[in-house]
C-alpha cells in the first residue's frame, strides 16, 4: 500500500512541448484518484511519469515515502493498465498473467495461487488456456487488469482502460473496477477524458487543463462548487448554462445577492425549474426550441427572449409542452454560480 506525493512536477518533452506544468498532489494510501480533462491536457504524460515510463523534468515524486524520480519502472512497485490492453498475442491468458511474475522470479506455486485468485476475481477462469485473439474486448480488458492484479502492487495506474469498449460494457466494467479497488484498498490513479466515468469512480477528482490542475475535490464538491469556468463547463452533462450578467440586468432579473465582480452567471440544467419554487429565485422567459425526450428524463432547449444562445433545461420524465410554446424558467438564487470572465474564476462573496 502506498501514499503518492507529487510536488511541483514538470514535464517538457524534447522539442519543447510543456505537457505538465507544476502539478502538486497528495494521494492518500488506498485512495482512488481520477485525473480528468480534455485530450492533450497532459493526463497520460503525468501517469507515465508516475509509472517511470517518462522522465521527470522537474519536481519530486514520492511513492510510499520514497523519492522515485530516477527509479526504474520495475522498481516502483506499481502496475499499469492501458487502453489498448498490451497483451502478448502469442501467449495464453494464463501465461499473460504469469509472465511478469516469472520474470521477477516468483516461485511456481505462488504464481499459480496469484493467477487463480485474479482469474476468479475477474471471472476469466474459463479462458486461461485461450489466446487473446479468441477473447472479446471486455474479456481482454479483464486479462489486462488481471496482469496488474497478480503483481499485488502498492498502486494501480489506469490510462483510459475502458475507451475501447462499447457503452454498455464500459458501464459494467466501471462498476467492477470500482468494487475491486474498494475491496483491495489499493491506491489508484485513473485517467479518463469522460467526466461521467470520472464522477462515478473517484474518491477525489483532479481536473487538468493544459498541463495544470484546475481543481481537486470530491465529485460532489466539483459539481456543486466549480471554482473555475473550465471546471463549470467540463463537469456535468448537459453542461452548465452561462448567462451574462448584462442580460439579467437588462431584463430586470439581476439578483442583488451575487457578489461584486460577477459578469457571468452559471445555472445547471437541473436547477432551471418549470414552476416557481417557494425560495427566492429569478425568472426568465423564452420559447421552447426543441424537446429531447429520453425516457426517465428529458432535455428542453429554450431560446430566452433577447438572447441567442440556447439554454438547456433538464426535467424528470417526459415533457408536456409543445415546441414553439412560450415558457418561463425559474432558478433558485442559491443555485446560481457567479463567475468573472477575465479571471476565469468563481467570484466568492
Ligand atoms: N512523446 C511526446 N513528445 C512530444 N510531445 C508529446 C509526447 N507525448 C505527448 N506529447 C504532447 O504533450 C501534451 C500532453 O499529451 P498527453 O499527456 O498524451 O495528453 P492526454 O493524455 O491528456 O491526452 C500534448 O500536447 C501532446 O501532444
Ligand atoms: Mg492520454
UniProtKB/TrEMBL annotation:
<keyword id="KW-0813">Transport</keyword>
<comment type="similarity">
    <text>Belongs to the ABC transporter superfamily.</text>
</comment>
<feature type="domain" description="ABC transporter">
    <location>
        <begin position="4"/>
        <end position="235"/>
    </location>
</feature>
<dbReference type="GO" id="GO:0016887">
    <property type="term" value="F:ATP hydrolysis activity"/>
</dbReference>
<keyword id="KW-0997">Cell inner membrane</keyword>
<keyword id="KW-1278">Translocase</keyword>
<dbReference type="Pfam" id="PF08402">
    <property type="entry name" value="TOBE_2"/>
</dbReference>
<dbReference type="InterPro" id="IPR047641">
    <property type="entry name" value="ABC_transpr_MalK/UgpC-like"/>
</dbReference>
<dbReference type="GO" id="GO:0055052">
    <property type="term" value="C:ATP-binding cassette (ABC) transporter complex, substrate-binding subunit-containing"/>
</dbReference>
<keyword id="KW-1003">Cell membrane</keyword>
<dbReference type="GO" id="GO:0008643">
    <property type="term" value="P:carbohydrate transport"/>
</dbReference>
<dbReference type="InterPro" id="IPR013611">
    <property type="entry name" value="Transp-assoc_OB_typ2"/>
</dbReference>
<dbReference type="InterPro" id="IPR017871">
    <property type="entry name" value="ABC_transporter-like_CS"/>
</dbReference>
<keyword id="KW-0067">ATP-binding</keyword>
<dbReference type="GO" id="GO:0005524">
    <property type="term" value="F:ATP binding"/>
</dbReference>
<dbReference type="InterPro" id="IPR003593">
    <property type="entry name" value="AAA+_ATPase"/>
</dbReference>
<keyword id="KW-0762">Sugar transport</keyword>
<dbReference type="GO" id="GO:0001407">
    <property type="term" value="P:glycerophosphodiester transmembrane transport"/>
</dbReference>
<dbReference type="GO" id="GO:0140359">
    <property type="term" value="F:ABC-type transporter activity"/>
</dbReference>
<dbReference type="InterPro" id="IPR008995">
    <property type="entry name" value="Mo/tungstate-bd_C_term_dom"/>
</dbReference>
<dbReference type="InterPro" id="IPR012340">
    <property type="entry name" value="NA-bd_OB-fold"/>
</dbReference>
<dbReference type="InterPro" id="IPR027417">
    <property type="entry name" value="P-loop_NTPase"/>
</dbReference>
<keyword id="KW-0547">Nucleotide-binding</keyword>
<dbReference type="InterPro" id="IPR015855">
    <property type="entry name" value="ABC_transpr_MalK-like"/>
</dbReference>
<protein>
    <submittedName>
        <fullName>sn-glycerol-3-phosphate ABC transporter ATP-binding protein UgpC</fullName>
    </submittedName>
</protein>
<dbReference type="Pfam" id="PF00005">
    <property type="entry name" value="ABC_tran"/>
</dbReference>
<dbReference type="InterPro" id="IPR003439">
    <property type="entry name" value="ABC_transporter-like_ATP-bd"/>
</dbReference>
<keyword id="KW-0472">Membrane</keyword>
<dbReference type="GO" id="GO:0015794">
    <property type="term" value="P:glycerol-3-phosphate transmembrane transport"/>
</dbReference>
Amino acid at each position: 500500500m502506498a501514499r503518492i506525493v507529487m510536488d511541483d512536477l514538470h514535464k517538457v518533452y524534447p522539442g519543447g512541448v510543456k505537457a505538465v506544468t507544476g502539478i502538486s498532489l497528495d494521494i492518500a494510501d488506498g485512495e482512488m484518484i481520477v485525473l480528468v480533462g480534455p485530450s492533450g491536457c497532459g493526463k497520460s504524460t503525468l501517469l507515465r511519469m508516475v509509472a517511470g515510463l517518462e522522465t521527470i523534468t522537474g519536481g519530486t515524486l514520492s511513492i510510499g515515502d520514497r523519492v522515485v524520480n530516477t527509479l526504474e519502472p520495475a522498481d516502483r512497485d506499481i502496475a499499469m493498465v492501458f487502453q489498448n490492453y498490451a497483451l502478448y498475442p502469442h501467449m495464453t491468458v494464463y501465461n499473460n498473467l504469469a509472465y511478469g511474475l516469472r520474470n521477477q522470479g516468483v516461485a511456481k506455486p505462488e504464481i499459480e495461487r496469484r493467477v487463480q485468485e485474479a482469474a476468479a476475481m475477474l471471472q476469466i477462469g474459463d479462458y486461461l488456456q485461450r489466446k487473446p485473439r479468441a477473447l472479446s474486448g471486455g474479456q481482454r480488458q479483464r486479462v489486462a487488469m488481471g496482469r496488474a492484479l497478480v503483481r499485488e502492487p502498492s498502486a494501480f495506474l489506469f490510462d483510459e482502460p475502458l475507451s475501447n469498449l462499447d457503452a454498455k460494457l464500459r458501464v459494467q466494467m466501471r462498476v467492477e473496477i470500482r468494487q475491486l479497488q474498494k475491496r483491495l484498498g489499493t491506491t489508484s490513479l485513473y485517467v479518463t477524458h469522460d467526466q461521467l466515468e470520472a464522477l462515478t469512480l473517484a474518491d477525489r477528482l483532479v481536473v487538468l487543463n493544459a498541463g495544470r490542475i484546475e481543481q481537486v475535490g470530491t465529485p460532489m464538491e466539483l459539481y456543486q462548487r466549480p471554482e473555475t469556468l473550465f471546471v463549470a463547463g467540463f463537469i456535468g452533462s448537459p453542461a452548465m448554462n452561462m448567462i451574462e450578467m448584462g442580460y439579467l440586468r437588462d431584463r430586470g432579473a439581476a439578483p442583488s445577492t451575487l457578489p461584486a465582480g460577477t459578469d457571468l452567471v452559471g445555472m445547471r440544467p437541473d436547477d432551471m425549474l418549470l414552476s416557481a419554487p417557494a425560495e427566492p429565485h429569478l425568472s426568465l422567459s423564452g420559447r421552447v426550441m426543441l424537446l429531447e425526450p429520453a425516457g426517465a428524463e428529458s432535455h428542453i432547449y429554450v431560446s430566452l427572449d433577447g438572447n441567442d444562445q440556447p439554454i438547456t433545461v433538464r426535467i424528470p420524465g417526459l415533457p408536456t409542452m409543445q415546441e414553439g410554446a412560450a415558457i418561463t424558467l425559474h432558478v433558485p438564487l442559491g443555485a446560481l454560480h457567479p463567475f468573472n470572465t477575465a479571471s476565469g474564476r468563481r467570484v466568492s462573496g
